[in-house]
Amino acid sequence: MYQDHICQAPNRDEIEKALFNYEIRKKTAECHDSPRLIIHEARLKLSSDAAITSSQYNTSQSAIQRMRRDDNIPSEPKTFADITTPLNFQNISITNQKFLLYENNNVNGRLLIFGSKEQLNF
Description:
- The chain is mostly helical.
- The chain folds into two domains: about 10-70, no CATH class; about 80-120, no CATH class.
- The chain contains five helices and four strands.
- Strand 1 (about 90) and strand 2 form a beta hairpin.
- The N and C termini lie far apart (about 75 Å).
């Protein structure tokens, strides 16, 4: 039944590269760190042999940007007028308190004040 099947031990470098890619995907979904920092931290976990054969920085950076674009993470604004604060970012999710305390909507001199009631009591 399994006459032509060849059983081989897994390639350690391939396993490490898969873990490297998983770590990048996980960090991209969990935080908004720069691609450079995410890639650097993931590379620190690789052996020297796996690091040599892992994806180039530009490839990993493109993957991070593509994942963030696909997840509808707001892009970095270029002007004050580009700054919009979606409702889901205006409240602290744990306590559902107002987090965006003030927004003047002036496109020439935008002013946003973030805080919580606990912070104002200090």
